[in-house]
Structures are given as structure tokens and as C-alpha cells.
């Protein structure tokens, strides 16, 4: 009887710990994705700041294209 009770408690504790680890991993991934997207936005702003006035349209377009590629790399696979 004690063995069955101890086994049940052990299973409960392990399942609870496993559930916490899974949600922690999701939170870490969300934080990583947010950091990645913030980095893409920062790089896009930096890119647009260096665009010359005379060729601004193609330069801004290239910056936007790079930003889109960067954001796609941030998405989970």
C-alpha cells in the first residue's frame, strides 16, 4: 500500500515538473523570437538611416526586403 502511494506521488511530481519545463521552454522561445524581431527592426532602422537622399527609393526598398527576410528567419520552423 505504501509503495503504491509513493509511486502515485512520484508520478504526480514528475508530471508537474514536466509541465513546468514545457511552459518554460515556450516562454524562452517567445522571448527569443521577440528579441529577434526587435533586432530586425533595429537593423532596418539603421539601414534606412544610411540611405542617400538621391537613391532613397531603391535603398529603402532594399532595407525593407532585408527586414522581411530577417523577420522570416525569426519564425519557428
Pick out its properties.
2 helices; mainly alpha; disordered N terminus; 77 residues
Question: Main β-sheet, in a few words?
Answer: none
Binned strand content: under 5%
Overall 3D shape: elongated
Rg over CA atoms: 24 Å
Number of domains: 1
Order of helices and strands: HH
The count of β-strands is 0
> Spans with pLDDT under 50 lasting ≥5 residues?
1-14, 16-21
Could you report the average pLDDT, rounded to the nearest whole number? 77
Task: List the SSEs and their pairings.
Blueprint: H1 2-49, H2 56-74
What would you note in describing this structure?
- The chain is mainly α and 77 residues long.
- The chain has one domain (2-74).
- Helices cover 87% and strands 0% of the residues.
- The protein is built from two helices and no strands.
- It has helices at residues 2-49, 56-74.
- It is elongated, with a radius of gyration of 24 Å.
- Mean pLDDT is 77; it is low at 1-14 and 16-21.
Summarize the structure.
This protein is mainly α and 77 residues long. It is 87% helix and 0% strand. The chain has one domain (2-74).
Amino acid at each position: 500500500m505504501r509503495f503504491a502511494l509513493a509511486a502515485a506521488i512520484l508520478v504526480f511530481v514528475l508530471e508537474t515538473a514536466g509541465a513546468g519545463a514545457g511552459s518554460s521552454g515556450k516562454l524562452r522561445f517567445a522571448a527569443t523570437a521577440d528579441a529577434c524581431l526587435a533586432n530586425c527592426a533595429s537593423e532596418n532602422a539603421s539601414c534606412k538611416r544610411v540611405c542617400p537622399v538621391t537613391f532613397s527609393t531603391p535603398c529603402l526598398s532594399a532595407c525593407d526586403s532585408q527586414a522581411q527576410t530577417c523577420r522570416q528567419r525569426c519564425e519557428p520552423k
